[in-house]
Prior knowledge:
The chain is α+β, with helices and mostly antiparallel strands. The protein has helices spanning about 5-20, 30-50, 55-80, 235-240, 270-295, 315-325; strands spanning about 25-30, 80-85, 90, 95-105, 110-120, 130-135, 140-145, 155-165, 170-185, 205-210, 215-220, 245-250, 255-260, 265, 295-300, 305-310, 330. The strands form five sheets. Strands 1, 3, 5, 6, 8 and 9 form a six-stranded mixed sheet that branches.
Amino acid sequence: MESSPSAPGALARLRAAYGRRIRLPRRLKFTREGKFFVGITLGLGFAAINTANNLLYLLLGMLLALIIVSGIMSELSLRDLTVVRRLPLRAQVGRAHLVEIEVFNHKGRTPSYAIEVEDLRAGQPADKRCFFLKISPKSAQVAAYRRTPTRRGRDVHVGFRIATRFPFGLFEKSREVAAEGQLVIYPAVDPMQLPPAPGGRAAGSDTFVGRGHGEEFLGLKLMRPGEDPRDIHWRKTASSGQMILRERARETRPDVTLNLDSVRPDGAGDEWLASFERRIRDVASRAVAHLKRGDQVVVVTSGGGTARADRTGGADPLLRYLALLGPTSKPAARAPEAAQ
């Protein structure tokens, strides 16, 4: 009898469900002191069995009681805790940013002691932790850690690892909770000095209906304090008895186009990827410099993508596009059409 097409998928789901079922809710790890403590306990137990000494049995019972008390108190500290992550609005390669971690204790009477929260990220080792000495019942504590990204792209947070060594530091009990979060890391931007913009009307510029400092006049208006008296219309001022000012039209410059080669040649290795990252950093630096000068910037990639930014909207749309931009493959050559 042939199996149905959905059999492999059903088998994979059963394996995943079985894996979740047998996953332990807590993980226990021996500390250095805990290894010595357990070794001494085992040695004392063997000595008590061999000698039948009541004093050794009493000491063995005390040591085992400490282990039981440590497990109970550490479990009470880990129970009923909620962790929330607060990511910054933006982050950039080479610039440190803060990530806030808030832990809320939902227990009504029991505080939590010596709580360590580790922020877990997909595909990266966990290296950032926050420590909370005491979290009172029905209250929250906030801590933050500083991180400096080393590469651009999407930074995916998957959850937390909550651990404690309370009360004796013999064992580290921990549990993992899922908490997704994403942060887009912008490429690094270097300070760049652009040549000064040419004076007068730029080639290819156009006038825009609105107030500004262009060469063409838009209309007349009453003069306000602080405005340039060189634009006074003297004939209208003499006839009306009020100071009448010429209103100039705003002049817009053409877009500044920055080209970026994003097509990866066949057989390109790590050297091309390093060069691609340097080109992205250079384009981001030039784009930010032009935006500070008031230009409108358009980034055009050889793969066919475009991104636009101006001073009004800021550099965020363009930097986000560059942060998520990846190399594209070379398009296949189109086969010539057969002659009919």
